[in-house]
Automatic annotation (TrEMBL):
UniProt entry tagged with the keyword Oxidoreductase: no
Pfam families, A to Z: DoxX
Keywords: Membrane, Transmembrane, Transmembrane helix
TM region(s), chain numbering: 18-37, 57-76, 82-99, 111-132
Entry's Gene Ontology cellular component terms: membrane
Membrane topology reported for the UniProt record: Multi-pass membrane protein
Protein localization: Membrane
Protein name per UniProt: DoxX family membrane protein
Primary location: membrane
Lineage, highest ranks first: Bacteria, Pseudomonadati, Pseudomonadota, Gammaproteobacteria, Enterobacterales
Length: 141
C-alpha cells in the first residue's frame, strides 16, 4: 500500500462527524471541569484568585467561570467556535505563565511545573488549531 493510500484510509477512518465532534469535548474537558468546580465552590475559586494575586477575587473568579464555560459552549455548539477557541487559548497561555513558572521552582517541583507548563502550551496549540480550522471552514463555506 502506498503512503498516499494509507493516509487516505486513515483520513476516512478519523474524519467522521462523530469523531470530529468527540474531539471538541476532549479539548474542552479541563475548562468544563474547571468552570463547574469554580462555580460550585466559589469560595475556593476566590481563594485561587487571591493566591495568584488577582483582586478583586470575586470578580476574577466570576470572569474565569464565565470564560471557561461560555467559551466551551461556543466551541461545542459551533457558534463562533473560532472565538471561543481563541479566548481559551489566550486564557490558557496567560494562566500558564502565571501558575506554572517552573523556572522559579526548585526540584522536584520544577519537574512537575515544567510538565504542566508544556502540557498547557500543547492545549493552547490545539485550541489555536480549532480556531484556524473553524475560520477556514467559514472562508470556504
Amino acid at each position: 500500500m502506498s503512503a498516499a493510500a494509507f493516509i487516505s484510509r486513515v483520513r476516512h477512518a478519523v474524519d467522521t462527524p462523530l469523531l470530529r465532534w468527540l474531539m471538541l469535548p476532549a479539548i474542552c474537558a479541563a475548562y468544563i471541569q474547571g468552570g463547574l468546580v469554580k462555580a460550585l465552590d466559589f469560595n475556593g475559586a476566590m481563594a485561587e484568585m487571591t493566591h495568584f494575586g488577582l483582586q478583586p477575587a470575586a470578580l476574577f473568579a466570576g470572569l474565569v467561570v464565565v470564560l471557561e464555560l461560555g467559551a466551551s459552549v461556543l466551541i461545542l455548539t459551533g457558534f463562533y467556535r473560532w472565538l471561543g477557541a481563541l479566548a481559551l487559548a489566550g486564557f490558557t497561555l496567560a494562566a500558564t505563565l502565571m501558575a506554572n513558572r517552573f523556572w522559579e521552582m526548585s526540584p522536584p517541583e520544577r519537574f512537575i511545573g515544567m510538565n504542566g507548563f508544556f502540557e498547557h502550551i500543547g492545549l493552547a496549540g490545539a485550541l489555536l488549531l480549532v480556531a484556524l480550522n473553524d475560520l477556514k471552514e467559514h472562508k470556504d463555506g
